[in-house]
Amino acid sequence: MSDPAIRVERGTVGGITTLWTASEGPTTATLMFRVGACDESLPIAGISHFVEHMAISTANPPRDLQHNGQVDATTTSFWATGTHDRVFAHIAEVANALGDLPVGRLETERSVLLAETDGVAPGAIGSLADDRFGARGHGIIGYPQFGLRCITGDDLRAWAARHFTRQNAVLVVRGELPNAFETNLASGVHMPPPPPEPVPWRVAPSESPRGPEGWVATGMLAERTTPAAAANGVVNQRLHTRLRGDAGLSYSPTTAWIPLDADTAHFLLLADARDRGSAGAVRDAMDDVVQELLRDGPTDDELALARDIVPDGLSTADVAAHWAHYMAADLLFGREPMSFDDFQQERAALTGNLVTQALATCYDTRIVAIPPDVRRSALPELARSTDNAVSGRDYQPQARADRKELTLTAADEGITSHSRSGTFTVRFDECAIALAWRDGRRDLIGDDGTFLPVEVGRLKDGDLLTELIDRRLGSQRIVFMDLDVSSRLDSIATMAPPDVMADTSLTRAIDLLAQAMSDDETIHAICKAKVGQYPGVLAVTNWRVIFIHNDEQYRFIHRSDVAEVTTRKASRLTRAEATLTVMTNDELSLGIQVGFTNDTLERMQSALATPLHRTAGEEVTHSTAG
Predict the structure, then answer these.
(1) Are the beta carbons of 188 and 168 closer than 8 angstroms?
(2) Which of 292, 378, 382, 590 is most solvent-facing, going by the fewest CB within 10 Å?
(3) How far apart, in whole angstroms, are the C-alpha atoms of residue 423 and residue 416?
(4) Residue 433 to residues 407, 472, 479: CA-CA distances in angstroms?
């Protein structure tokens, strides 16, 4: 039966379409925009994430306010929970920042974002998106955020002006509406998500042996109908019972339902696998679950659970708040949302035949992703190349031993690679991006996801290939993966003790430090250091304390978050190990073993006691004990 108490009101607040529900507890407001990774291209991948960070960086909410921002494939959201006035003051502050982004913080936020995303793999969901859609549209979530390296302040402001507008937003409120809510968000147009466009020559059903390690996943395209969503729920229950409960093959098998546009969703089955030896069994068990449901249909208990859409433990207010967010997503996708009462009636009318018919349609579109070297199933392998090789000049490896392994053919139309792993072509008019290095290397990624590395240093006359690629693609599709950090290395060398620069084991860490620095960042002190078993360098800059070892950026602490710094020398020798402990305002500590001379110790203590200087000239002091 329908529940008339579950109501979502609809109106306009501050020129923004608004959905609101009643609440007796804290106020929650979410400002959602219809822009996400699917709207980006690879050279600017991450620009929505960049805008989100820039907008939040200007806010100065009270400590008792819960708040955050989030970017996914199709939307960007900002939310806050707390007292009524503080919630809407924060949301208005973020909205105003979107209308006038603080680009003076560009390099600082770039450094933070690069640290946040460094080494983050796209995962099973991103891998399936890439397999189906390639390197554009809904496949962008399968790639790193390359654009974070090169996006400019003008790029950010143009993106915000186009996508972060009143007409492209929905405000969702749990609680009372504000008496007044004015922002400087610009007027614009509603922008529905791009239609999902699979790579046409990647035929499904098929199997992709390039999935992420430790995971088995199946992706299917589904119509956004109530029977298909119900099938997702039934499969989820059976996966958990079969793979975890009965077979013990997977710890957290699950499904996902990801709307792509108004009509289509990505229906995903995901399961972790202990190792490659068990991945084949996980894949087979997942497929058995779906095939059994197609053959026998859902049980009466499963149908009853699918019809009962209000989970146990949720209050009426909780259900109404959740439903308001579903409605908001539909509005942003250009789909008129149904009422909760109509949705209940559709669920109540579910039959076993409707569920199995919807699942059967999805099943024919499946792509199964498994880790490399896992036993193959009977499905054909997902195609990785097409017969579209170019004719032109051949480039041979310089080393005779490599000539049987690799040949590149280049023409004005594009480049073809011939190797033992296959023949791959990226045509310049279908090239999404060229990842570039200053030694001339270029890695091409086609719109269809084809990856073609061009290691010019291995090839005779390889510099001619670099010139060809750069000329045909132009600067807008080239992103440099390494920075010209010579001036930063000079500043590090000036401040570093001689033993740091002379230690060849630290060369990589020093280079990573130079690349991690922002343009407005200066070194105040630097020394050898160790965190746990990781040796590296510790630097104090004008805005942070940063430790880097040879493999990755280990951790940094913003100096405005430093509450206390203590140092303890281990001996009275001229050169001694000391322990430096940085305590943050959140009462988190970072203990660092530091190789000091007395002079370096004094310099480090002095640098840490110096007030923080931000780009805008603002000073923030902190207490130190040493």
Answers:
(1) yes
(2) 378
(3) 7
(4) 21, 12, 7
Which residues of the chain fall below pLDDT 70?
A: 1-4, 119, 311-313, 401-404, 532, 550-602, 604-605, 608-626
Residue ranges of the alpha helices (H) in 503-548? 507-516
CA 284 to chain centre: 30
What letter would DSSP give residue 532?
A: T
Indicate the length of the chain as a whole number. 626
Rounded to the nearest 10 degrees, how much is the dihedral formed by the CA atoms of 356, 362, 365, 370?
-90
SS3 content of the chain, % helix, strand, coil (to 5): 40, 25, 35
Backbone phi, psi, residue 449, to 5°: 90, 0
Taking a C-beta distance cutoff of 8 angstroms, is the pair 52, 69 a contact?
A: yes
**Residue 130 near residue 139, CB atoms below 8 Å:** yes
According to DSSP H, which parts of 478-610 are helical? 486-495, 498-502, 507-516, 598-609
Query: What single-letter amino acid sits at 268?
Result: L
Give residues with Cβ within 8 angstroms of 187, minimum separation 6: 15, 165, 166, 167
Q: Tokens representing 547?
A: 């430790």
Q: What is the pLDDT of residue 626?
A: 27
Q: Which residues pair with 590 in a beta bridge?
A: 582
Q: DSSP string covering 399-455, please?
A: SGGGTTTEEEEEETTEEEEEETTEEEEEEGGGEEEEEE-TTS-EEEEETT--EEEE-
Element (H or E) spanning 270, and its range?
A: strand 264-272
SS3 of 241, please? helix
Spatial separation of the C-alpha atoms in residues 489 and 541, rounded to whole Å: 14
